[in-house]
Specification:
The protein is an alpha/beta fold. It contains 7 helices and 5 strands. It has a single domain, classed as Glutaredoxin. The protein has a 5-stranded mixed beta sheet, with helices on both faces. The longest helix has 19 residues. The chain is globular. The relative contact order is 0.18.
Length: 136
């Protein structure tokens, strides 16, 4: 292998972890606490694969993220599977009433939430709240 090919392959492998972490990640116990302790703003999406409202919210969030890369660069988006974590400590602690609930957290504060809403303007306002918290 020549040097140029070696460096190209090495650079590609160096970028893979960053690409893998792009976009929302799936919730695991302790993840939210870890992100908050690191000073990050967290956007939680409590959803179920079979939920049509959740799917509509997901489409709006994806569109907004595509329109403004600053969201994804500054906010930790975490998907919480409702079927798996509906009775989990995080769900109870945050008093999540149902799937299709979106919540923004920073430090030990809840900055906002939407329950079963799919309005682009409402979701954008929540994401803007998260972005403002993350960048201030």
């Amino acid at each position: 292998m020549n040097r140029r090919a070696f460096f190209a392959i090495s650079a590609a492998f160096a970028v893979l972890p960053a690409l893998a972490s792009a976009g929302p990640v799936d919730y695991t116990p302790g993840l939210v606490e870890q992100e908050l302790a690191a000073g990050k703003t967290v956007f939680l999406d409590f959803k179920a694969s079979w939920c049509s409202t959740c799917a509509a919210q997901e489409r709006v969030i994806a569109k907004l993220m595509a329109e403004n890369p600053a969201y994804e660069q500054n906010i930790s988006f975490i998907n919480v599977d409702w079927d798996e974590f509906r009775s989990a400590k995080i769900t109870k602690d945050l008093k999540i009433p149902r799937r299709s609930t979106l919540v923004v957290l920073k430090g030990n504060q809840e900055l906002g939430r939407i329950v079963a809403g799919v309005s682009k303007s409402d979701i954008k306002a929540l994401m803007d709240t998260a972005l403002n918290a993350a960048t201030s």
